[in-house]
Amino acid sequence: MNVQEEKKVLEVFCRTIPEGLFGPDRVHYIIENIDKIKDQDKILLRKLFNKFLTSMIERDASDIEVGGHGNCGYIWMRIYGNKERAKDLPQFSDDEAATIIINLLNTNQRKHLWEHKNLDFSYTYLYERRNVNVRFRADAYFDLDTLTLNMRAINQTIRPLASLEFHPNVVRTMSHGYIKFGLSLITGITGSGKSTTLDSIVDHHNKFDPCHIIIIAAPIEYVHTSNVSLIKHREVGRDVATFKDGIVQALRQDPDIIIVGEMRDPDTIMAALEVTDTGHKVFSTLHTSSAVESIDRIIAEVHPTEQERVRNRLADVLISIVSQKLVPSLDGKRVLAKEVLIVTPSVKAAIKNNNTSEIYMMMNQGGAQGMITMEQDLKRLYLEKKISLETAITYANNKTRIHQILAA
């Protein structure tokens, strides 16, 4: 990749940074003075960044990392789950990388980045080889006083819900046509495909259900086109101030289904439970690795004096939890492993009585209703020769249980 012209633009600008500035003050100088770069040179730098994204797409990478102390000048990518240096791409100093990153942002975004030391945003560019607009979810943040950026590619095609291999009863449970209200959670660690699953659920409704879906996310990733359903997208920080505000305001917007991108704080959790109480169907995500942990996390997030009330409310409105992981497959890619909880009267009683430890065995024995533990699903993938024995054991939540069922 020949970047001599772009490198020259970066070197000329970075030489204007006073030598007496250190750490974040250098980033602040770039933020304040980026508009001194000529417009044609700013376009050149943006096109350079788009070349990195093109390289990312053509390597089938899910993420790209640019800038920051930890990058050691390299651009890094995550390819089939592994983080790797892209040694064939050009290297950049911390100041050069910060200039490339800040050049992507508008004035308000630059101000937010400096004030909060973090910025979530979305980015779109034209992938010329296929003549399609590709969207990315981005997060700019500081790493030892240097600016760094992560971007994750957003799938341009939605996986059919059937391809996720849910039990028919689980699909019915998540369907607005079958149950008009209630809370369904999709949980997992970062990069486990939660957003992909949510988009599949939205797309499933959009094919069959004449309903109104409001998506509240930070940022909006896949943009759905209304088909049978009417779909509205509200990006936190752009279309609405907070997740809580988006949920409360949605009550006056005649929704049937509300998608809450993430239940990340007590206010959002309480707002989601309250709107579900009003007879709406709500889908959301949590950063938890099991169904039981998800229940415990929601209750633990609120003040101790509120926990009993929240426990009872959660038991009344919770419909299902899908906890998922993307695990390395034998073909060198990744495959979905999932745990599914359907809230039966027994599960509801266990939540209300604070006996969540009993729920694992209910899932273990609830196969006929569509329930499955992570360990059971990992065993299935192993028996289908999709993953190795070591992978099944490594990704199990309950190591004792995975050894028991593999030996059975």
Automatic annotation (TrEMBL):
PROSITE patterns: T2SP_E (PS00662). GO terms for molecular function: ATP binding; ATP hydrolysis activity. It holds the Pfam family T2SSE. Signal peptide: none annotated. Residues 251-265 form the Bacterial type II secretion system protein E domain. It comes from the Bacteria. PANTHER family: TWITCHING MOTILITY PROTEIN PILT. Belongs to the GSP E family. This is Twitching motility protein PilT. The gene is pilT.
